[in-house]
Amino acid sequence: MKHFAHVIAWLSEILLRDEWSNLALKLKEQYFAFLIELDNRPSQPLQSLLISGEDHRFFSHGGIDVIAVCRSLWRTFIVGKREGASTIEMQIVRVLTGRFENTIRRKIKEMALATLVVRVVPKSVLPSIYLQIGYYGWQMDSLRAACQRLCIDPSAIATEDVASLVARIKYPQPRHITDVWTRKIERRSRHLLTLYKSHQCGRTYAGLSARVRYATI
To answer: Tell me: the pLDDT tens digits for 58-76?
Structure first.
């Protein structure tokens, strides 16, 4: 999958020069913020739950998960049920570019730019960066805002709280909480914890190292 991403990255750098230039500057800003934020970095369980729930082949692809894309196309056009195939890189591109329109053109550009992300930011740092800038719900458009509103510590929280927080990436918290939303969060949290236990036995988190948490400029 990484060889395919290298080819797409080469083409993207040529065809999307202006878009990539703007995105690269924003990525550098986020990476610098990561390096200086020593006390408020996401804990390792928080990063692991994100990978399990959003992109469990994260360390085996180059920005595009070809398997997920093929499965999404099959389920959309054959089964008739929509399913996402966004990687962590693609979600970072979406947030930093501020492009959320539901069009094929936007999605293709997002995938193309995702293959270039690791040219600016190390792969192992991307989960932390996405957690920092992700949308968790009303008045929670960053990890800092979410933790303040929910009264939790991002660097030392229990696995159950981690799961509940990551679950909000899929189901952002509305301004007025409903029973339906609460049940969705509870189901999603249980699912994330099940994935977490399963993935601990393999190499899903192999790229997450202690250096991620203690890197300095």
So the answer is: 999 999 999 998 988 887 7
pLDDT at 75: 77
Name every residue whose Cβ is closer than 8 Å to that of residue 117 and which is 6 or more positions away in sequence.
27, 63, 89, 92, 93, 126
Dump the DSSP string for 14-44: HHTHHHHHHHHHHHHHHHHHHHH--SSPPPH
Q: Provide the phi-psi class of 103: left if phi over 0, else alpha when psi is between -120 and 50, else beta.
A: beta
Q: What CA–CA distance (Å, rounded) separates 167 from 72?
A: 21
Would you tell me how many other CB atoms lie within 10 Å of the CB of residue 84? 12
Ramachandran category for residue 80: left, alpha or beta (phi over 0 → left; psi -120 to 50 → alpha): left
Phi–psi pair at 122, nearest 5 degrees: -60, 145
Mean pLDDT confidence for 162-187? 96
Per DSSP, 137 falls in state B
Instruction: Give 185-196 pLDDT, tens digit per residue.
Output: 999 999 999 999
The two structure tokens encoding residue 127? 């989960």
